[in-house]
Amino acid sequence: MTPTEPLPERVSERAPAGARPEPTPRPERKARPGGGAAWAIRLGQMGITTILLVIAVVRAAGDGVPLALVVSLALVFAGWYVGGLLLGARTRDAALAAWWLAGLSLIWAGTVAVSAEFVWLAFPLWLLAGFVLRLPWAVAFSVAILAVVIAAPILHSGSTSYANVIGPVVGGVFAFGIARGYLELVRDARERRR
Questions:
Q1: Rounded to the nearest 10 degrees, how much is the dihedral formed by the CA atoms of 145, 147, 153, 157?
Q2: 35 backbone φψ class: left, alpha, beta (φ>0; ψ -120 to 50)
Q3: Is 27 part of any domain?
Q4: DSSP states of 31-99 as a string?
Q5: Does a structural domain hold residue 163?
Q6: What is the pTM of this model?
Q7: Mind listing the pLDDT tens digit for each residue in 27-43?
Q8: To 5 degrees, how large is the angle CA 110–CA 138–CA 43?
């Protein structure tokens, strides 16, 4: 309360014995678009991305990439990512979201060019592709991300392993499936409400 606001009036009358006081009306809350589930999904994605970003930074620094460079790249990625989340909370512009994802993927490609350890961040990109892009574009985007993930170890060390291929394929399908499955559940819920 600011000093210029009038103080609330005091009630001098007491309620009769045994009577319950009138509940104070609460101000109406605006429902968030997508509800609490959408917010939980967003927090979960942010948590996964943060953990994978830390793993990538630690592993890249452990491989001898200068720490200042690794941290700088991580901060650029994180800044663009968080900026997109904040913007996404204010607008539902699908084209803007697609351009944001394109920018994030270019930043990611730059990080992978410096260290193959940044392939860990492909998982959040696959999740985002499933949420942000229409199905044909999301599939094409996901395949392109997978190609970079598979090529990165070869380009950095000259070799790869089955684990470097099978792991990302399974992770990519899983992440993409989670995102698309969630969207289908949201569509079903909307249809039931009609």
A1: -130
A2: left
A3: no
A4: PPTTHHHHHHHHHHHHHHHHHHHHHHHHHHHHTT--HHHHHHHHHHHHHHHHHHHHHHHH---HHHHHH
A5: yes
A6: 0.77
A7: 444 444 456 777 788 88
A8: 75
CB distance 105 to 55 below 8 Å: no
Helix (H) / strand (E) element for 147: namely: helix 135-157
DSSP secondary structure letter of residue 101:
H
Rounded Cα distance, 58 and 2, in Å: 49
**Which residue, among 108, 121, 116, has the nearest Cα to 159 in the 3D structure?**
116
Residue 17 domain-assigned?
no
Contact status, residue 118 vs residue 87, Cβ threshold 8 Å = no
Query: Residue 66: what are its φ and ψ, rounded to 5°?
Result: -55, 130
Q: What confidence tens digit (pLDDT) does each residue in 127-155 have? A: 999 999 999 999 999 999 999 999 999 99
Tokens in use for 55?
Answer: 């793993």
How many structural domains compose the chain? Answer: 1
Proportion of the chain in helix, strand, coil states, percent, rounded to 5: 75, 0, 25
135: domain range? Answer: 48-188
Is 101 domain-assigned?
Answer: yes
